[in-house]
Design brief:
Blueprint (H helix, E strand, L loop, with lengths): L1 H11 L2 H30 L10 E8 L4 E4 L3 H10 L3 E15 L6 E8 L3 H5 L5 E2 L14 E4 L1 H8 L9 E4 L2 E8 L14 E3 L10 H5 L6 E6 L5 H18 L9 E6 H6 L3 H32 L1 H9 L4 H38 L13 H25 L5 H5 L7 H39 L10 E5 L12 H15 L5 E3 L12 E6 L2
Parallel strand pairs: 4-9, 6-8
Antiparallel strand pairs: 1-2, 1-10, 1-11, 3-4, 3-7, 3-10, 5-8, 6-9, 7-8, 12-14, 13-14
Helix pairs in contact: 1-11, 2-9, 2-11, 2-12, 3-7, 9-12, 9-14, 11-12
Length: 519
C-alpha cells in the first residue's frame, strides 16, 4: 500500500503531466474499449438460444445469377429433411407482415414470422405464458393461432394474462392467442418479430407455383448432432443437392448450391474483416498515445535523474526504485483507463444514435463486465510497458555523470535522448501507417458509393407493400385496384413524390413499388 501511495504522491506533484498523459491514454484506451465492446456484441457473444454453437443455417447460392446466401426452397427443404443424417432437428420459417386489429385499438402493421411448429423449439425457445404450436396447427387447414412477442403483449395488450384464448384479427382473419414468448425471442436476429403464426408454406405473399417451383423464400435452420461437423454437413448437402437436381429438373434452384454455415456466421460473418480492421486501427491509436506518454515520461524522469542518482548513492536498492517507476505508470494508466471507460460510454451512445441501424446486435452493445475487464487489462498492460521503459533507462545509472550539474550533456543523457528519438520515429511510422490505412478505407468506401448500378437511382424510394390476403386475394381485381389507387394517390401528393407505373402480377405480391421524388 505504501508503494502505491508514493506513486500517487509523485504523480500529484506534476499535475500538468498527469492531465496531459491521462487524457492521451483515455483517448487510446477509450477508443479500443469502444470497438471491442462492438466486436464482442456482434461476434464473440453467443446467440440467445440453447447451445448456439450447434445451430446452422441452410442457404442457397447461385453465383452466376448473382444469388449468394439466399433462402432455401420448400422442395429442397423436404429433400434434406427426408435424407439427412447429420442434424438432430431441422425446421423452416418465413418472415412476413400482418395488419393487426384488436378490440379497442387502431389497425397496425406489424412484422411477423410464419414458423413451423418445431422452429422455435429447435432454438430452445418456449412461451413463458401459454403454449406453442402443435403439429396439427401446422397442417393445411389447421387452426388459426398466434403467439405474441413479449414487447407486443406489453405494449398492445397491457401484459394481461387473460389474453390467452382471446381472438385478435390478423389480415382480417381471427387468430386465437395461445402464448407469449420470453424476451430472449425478441433479441437479434428476431428483434423485429412481433408475433408468430404457423404454416409457413401458406405465407400470403407467395402462390403455390413459387413455393413448388424452387423459390428461395424460406429460412431453414438445423442443429448439428453431437460430433457432426460443418464439413460433414456440407458434404452431405452436396450429395442431396445432386439427387434433388435429378428429381426436380425444372425448379429455379436446381443449379444452386446448398450451403451450411454456423448461424452466427450466416448472420454477421461477412462483416468480420471490416470490424477487425477497425479494431486494428484503434489499436494503432493506442500505440500512438502510448508513444506520446512514453516520451513525456522519459523527459520527466530525465529531470529527476539527479534525484534518483542521489537515492542510489545513499543506498537505495535498484529493484525498489524500478518498482516505484512501474507503479507510477500503472497508476497513471489506471487513471487514463477510468477516463477512457467514460469516453467509451459516451462514444457508444453516439454510435448507437448515428449508425446503430447499420450494426447488427447493436442493442447488445454495452460496457458489460467482460468489456470492463478488457479495459482494465489494457490499462494494466499499458502501464506496465510504460513503466518498464524508464526503469530500464535508470537501471544502471552513471552516478558520477548524474550528480554533475551539466548532466544533460552526459552519455546517459544522450542515451535517453536516443531512446526518445526512437520512440518519436516509431510514433511517426505508426501514424503514417494508420493514415495510409484510413485513406485506403475512405477510398474504398467512395468507390463502392460511386459504383454505376446501370440505372438511375437518385431520388428513388422503394417501399415494400403487402396487402392483406384475406381482403385482396391473389390475381384478383381487388388487388389490381388497390395498386391502382395507391399509385394514383402517390401521384397526387403535391410537391412530394409521383408514382411510377408498373405491371403487377401475383408474383409481385409483397414486392417493391417505386416512387421518384419531384425536383
Amino acid at each position: 500500500m505504501r508503494l502505491w501511495n508514493q506513486a500517487v504522491r509523485q504523480l500529484l506533484r506534476s499535475p500538468g503531466f498527469l492531465a496531459v498523459a491521462a487524457l492521451a491514454l483515455a483517448l487510446g484506451i477509450g477508443s479500443t474499449t469502444t470497438i471491442f465492446s462492438i466486436v464482442r456484441a456482434v461476434f464473440l457473444r453467443g446467440l440467445p438460444y440453447a447451445d448456439p454453437g450447434s445451430l446452422v443455417q441452410l442457404r442457397s447460392s447461385l453465383p452466376e445469377q448473382g444469388i449468394v446466401g439466399a433462402g432455401f426452397s420448400f422442395p429442397r427443404f423436404e429433400a434434406v429433411r427426408d435424407r439427412q443424417t447429420v442434424f438432430t432437428a431441422l425446421s423452416y420459417a418465413a418472415f412476413t407482415a400482418f395488419t393487426l386489429t384488436a378490440s379497442g385499438g387502431e389497425p397496425e402493421q406489424v412484422q411477423g414470422m410464419q414458423a413451423a411448429h418445431d422452429y422455435l423449439p429447435l432454438l430452445g425457445l418456449a412461451p413463458e405464458v401459454g403454449r406453442g404450436f402443435v403439429a396439427d396447427e401446422d397442417r393445411p387447414g389447421g387452426a388459426d393461432v398466434v403467439v405474441l412477442s413479449r414487447g407486443l403483449w406489453q405494449r398492445r395488450f397491457g401484459a394481461r394474462s387473460d389474453i390467452i384464448g382471446q381472438p385478435i384479427n390478423l389480415d382480417g382473419r381471427p387468430h386465437t392467442v395461445i402464448g407469449v414468448m420470453p424476451q430472449a425471442a425478441s433479441r437479434f436476429p428476431m428483434n423485429q418479430v412481433a408475433l408468430w403464426t404457423p404454416r409457413p408454406q401458406e405465407v400470403s405473399y407467395l402462390v403455390r407455383q413459387q413455393i413448388d417451383g424452387g423459390g428461395f423464400f424460406f429460412n431453414v435452420l438445423a442443429r448439428l448432432k453431437p460430433g457432426a461437423t460443418l464439413a460433414a454437413a456440407t458434404a452431405q448437402m452436396a450429395t442431396i443437392a445432386q439427387a434433388y437436381s435429378l428429381s426436380h429438373p425444372t425448379n429455379a434452384d436446381v443449379k444452386a448450391s446448398a450451403d451450411v454455415n454456423s448461424l452466427l456466421d450466416a448472420l454477421v460473418g461477412d462483416q468480420r474483416a471490416t470490424y477487425l480492421l477497425l479494431f486494428a486501427a484503434v489499436a494503432c491509436l493506442l500505440l500512438i498515445a502510448g508513444a506520446n506518454v512514453a516520451n513525456l515520461s522519459l523527459a520527466r524522469y530525465a529531470a529527476r535523474r539527479k534525484q534518483i542518482a542521489i537515492r542510489y548513492a545513499l543506498g537505495a536498492g535498484r529493484r525498489h526504485v524500478m518498482t516505484e517507476m512501474v507503479a507510477e505508470n500503472i497508476v497513471l494508466a489506471l487513471v487514463g483507463g477510468a477516463a477512457g471507460v467514460g469516453f467509451a460510454q459516451l462514444s457508444l451512445g453516439l454510435v448507437k444514435q448515428w449508425v446503430g441501424d447499420r450494426i447488427p446486435r447493436v442493442e447488445e452493445v454495452s460496457l458489460d463486465p467482460a468489456v470492463l475487464l478488457f479495459s482494465l487489462g489494457v490499462s494494466l498492460l499499458t502501464g506496465l510497458l510504460l513503466g518498464l521503459l524508464p526503469a530500464w533507462q535508470m537501471a544502471k545509472p552513471d552516478l558520477t555523470d548524474a550528480l554533475k550539474e551539466s548532466s544533460r550533456d552526459t552519455s546517459s543523457g544522450r542515451r535517453q535522448s536516443r531512446t526518445r528519438s526512437a520512440l518519436l520515429i516509431a510514433e511517426v511510422a505508426v501514424s503514417f501507417v494508420l493514415l495510409a490505412a484510413a485513406g485506403l478505407l475512405v477510398a474504398s468506401f467512395m468507390r463502392i458509393q460511386n459504383v454505376d448500378p446501370r440505372f438511375r437511382s437518385d431520388g428513388i424510394l422503394i417501399a415494400g407493400v403487402q396487402p392483406p390476403s384475406g381482403r385482396y386475394p391473389d390475381r384478383s381485381e381487388a388487388l389490381a385496384q388497390f395498386y391502382a389507387r395507391l399509385l394514383e394517390r402517390a401521384r397526387n401528393l403535391p410537391g412530394r413524390i409521383r408514382g411510377r407505373d408498373r405491371r403487377y402480377s401475383a408474383f409481385d405480391r409483397g414486392g417493391p413499388v417505386s416512387f421518384r421524388r419531384r425536383r
